[in-house]
């Protein structure tokens, strides 16, 4: 309700337990709202959700995925681009369309997009290590509100560069930082060190070998 009123979803979104029934089998999961702007969740149905299956289970080879309206992922562009990039051995997520019924309400068809997880890396024979992401939505709440209000009031279509802050961040940062406090594993120390550099706006090449990164880039559209 707060997000609908503000037109922006703050970062304190919470997970709730869920049961997912697929092909006659029940899966336990955690779900939470997804998407900063109101196109993802302002209507009574087809909210954008992030889904994480429990107990190591997966659906269509995915144990973490998002559910969105097709238009919020520029369908069919993103799945087509994903399939095209696979030709060049660039790692991209899987997409699947499901017919969704939530608590007895018919939500129609929605697009499932695989999220980067341990299973995502395992399926692609990649080492379970740090994954970086471009900060394509690195915006303060005030910037989000200004963007939304300008779009609504003035019908301004902003240049896409507005969304980029020329930063990278650590994927699943919260989980990785929690692990870094609990473990002496060297990888976790590296995560903490990189996070500190990112927080202090250190240059990208001070914590990333850009030449190696360009050779092993995993794309998440």
Short description:
The protein has 221 residues and is an alpha+beta fold. The chain has helices at residues 2-6, 77-86, 118-123, 141-154, 173-182, 186-199, 210-215; strands at residues 16-22, 25-33, 49-53, 64-68, 95-102, 105-114, 132-134, 168-170. The two termini are 29 Å apart.
How would you explain this protein's 3D organization?
This protein is of the alpha+beta class. It has seven helices and eight strands, in the order αββββαββαβαβααα. The protein has helices spanning 2-6, 77-86, 118-123, 141-154, 173-182, 186-199, 210-215, and strands spanning 16-22, 25-33, 49-53, 64-68, 95-102, 105-114, 132-134, 168-170. The strands form two sheets. Strands 1-2-3-4-6-5 form a six-stranded antiparallel beta sheet, with no helix packed on it. A two-stranded antiparallel ribbon has the order 7-8. Helix 5 packs across helix 6 (186-199). The radius of gyration is 19 Å and the shape is globular. Residues 137-141 and 154-166 have low confidence and may be disordered.
- End-to-end CA span: 29 Å
Ranges with pLDDT <50 over ≥5 residues?
137-141, 154-166
Tell me roughly what share of residues is in helical segments: 25-40%
* Radius of gyration, whole Å: 19 Å
Describe the sheet with the most strands. 6 strands, antiparallel
Overall spatial form: globular
| Series of secondary-structure elements, N-terminal to C-terminal | HEEEEHEEHEHEHHH
| Mean pLDDT across all amino acids | 78
Beta-strand portion reads: 15-25%
- Figure out the total of helices: 7
Secondary structure: number of strands: 8
Strand order of the largest sheet: 1-2-3-4-6-5
Helix/strand-derived category reads alpha+beta
């Amino acid at each position: 309700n707060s997000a609908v009123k503000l037109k922006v979803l703050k970062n304190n979104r919470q997970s709730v337990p869920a049961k997912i029934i697929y092909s006659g089998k029940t899966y336990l999961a955690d779900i939470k709202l997804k998407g900063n702007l109101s196109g993802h969740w302002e209507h009574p149905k087809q909210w954008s959700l992030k889904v994480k299956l429990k107990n190591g289970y997966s659906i269509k080879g995915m144990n973490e995925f998002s559910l969105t309206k097709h238009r919020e992922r520029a369908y069919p562009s993103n799945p087509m681009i994903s399939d095209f990039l696979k030709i060049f051995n660039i790692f991209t997520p899987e997409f699947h369309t499901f017919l969704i019924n939530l608590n007895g309400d018919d939500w129609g068809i929605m697009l499932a997009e695989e999220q980067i997880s341990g299973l995502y890396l395992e399926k692609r024979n990649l080492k379970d290590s740090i994954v970086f992401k471009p900060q394509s939505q690195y915006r303060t709440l005030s910037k989000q509100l200004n963007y939304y209000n300008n779009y609504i009031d003035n019908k301004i279509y902003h240049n896409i560069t507005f969304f980029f802050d020329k930063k990278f961040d650590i994927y699943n940062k919260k989980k990785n930082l929690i692990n870094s406090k609990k473990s002496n594993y060297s990888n976790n120390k590296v995560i903490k060190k990189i996070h500190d550099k990112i927080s202090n706006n250190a240059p990208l090449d001070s914590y990333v070998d850009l030449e190696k990164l360009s050779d092993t880039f995993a794309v998440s559209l």
